[in-house]
Specification:
The protein has 243 residues and is α+β, with helices and mostly antiparallel strands. The protein contains six helices and twelve strands. A hairpin with a 5-residue loop joins β3 and β4.
Length: 243
């Protein structure tokens, strides 16, 4: 059974990132068809989920990734070979010089987002905007001092969006670096106020504009917020690494 591939919008930022958005609430027969493109290891990972819903989401999200990569590599989805970094970031097993695709995936509930860039590292993250009872405690524990001040300055109706703006932007940056959550979240600052452009403000002791990374934020679907971070390249400009 043919399964449609989600539409792709490109370019998304000035760094020509391609973004795809996909729903994961797929009918059982479509899930079975999508599972046929997964590797044996991916199927084993799917079987580790206790929840049938989580298993279905994993299968659909991973199969969509294979479809989107296959379109760019001009091969079949099941022929896409993936490897994983020390902190779980996926990459192509055998990238070619003329098609050096880097990519990142994130999903929340039944929505997945994908970012693709040629020759530049990229990270993406998505969250559903919802009430978080211990948000203030999370902010005080994980956000930087500058971010805490920006969050506390928001009105009651803006705090949850500000919280998830910050969280998705920080996680997208760490995913672009390939470090996962192994780095302390307070060693860099991002903007978070609703209506304010998404920016990296600081990386360690350096201004964000000198970090070698650019950031953008978008609303993939109503009730969700997402962020994407891309490596910048240019004369004398190298991406900062948090180590």
């Amino acid at each position: 059974m043919p399964v449609p591939v989600p539409e792709v919008a490109t370019p998304f930022t000035r760094e020509a990132v391609e973004i795809a958005i996909s729903r994961l609430d797929t009918r059982p027969e479509a899930v079975r068809a999508l599972a046929e493109s997964l590797s044996s290891e991916e199927l084993r990972r799917a079987d580790r989920y206790d929840s049938g819903r989580d298993r279905r989401r994993f299968i659909v999200a991973r199969a969509r990734l294979r479809q989107l990569l296959a379109l760019r590599l001009m091969i079949r989805p099941e022929a896409v070979e993936l490897v994983y970094g020390a902190h779980g970031k996926p990459a192509l097993a055998r990238p070619s010089n003329h098609m050096d695709w880097r990519f990142s995936v994130s999903h929340c509930d039944d929505v997945a987002v994908y970012a693709f860039s040629q020759g530049r590292e990229v990270g993406i993250d998505i969250e559903a905007i919802r009430e978080v009872g211990d948000a203030d405690a999370i902010v005080s524990h994980f956000f930087s001092r500058r971010e805490q001040e920006a969050y506390l300055a928001l009105g009651p109706g803006e705090k949850m969006l500000g919280f998830f703006n910050c969280w998705t932007r920080k996680e997208a940056f760490l995913k672009a670096l390939g470090h996962g959550l192994s780095d302390p979240l307070d060693c860099f600052d991002v903007s978070l106020a609703p209506g304010e452009p998404a920016r990296i403000l600081r990386v360690k002791d350096a201004p964000g504009c000198d970090s070698g990374w650019c950031m953008d934020s978008f609303c993939p679907l109503p009730g969700f917020v997402a962020a994407v971070v891309t490596e910048r390249r240019g004369p004398g400009l190298e991406a900062a690494i948090l180590q």
